[in-house]
Amino acid sequence: MRKRRFNGGYSKEVVKENLFIEKHIINLSKVAVPQYRWENSERTSDVIGYKSWFIQEGTDPFEVKFETKPTLPPFLSEVSFDDLEGCEVRSNVYFRAK
Question: Residue 62 falls within a domain, yes or no?
Answer without folding.
Answer: yes
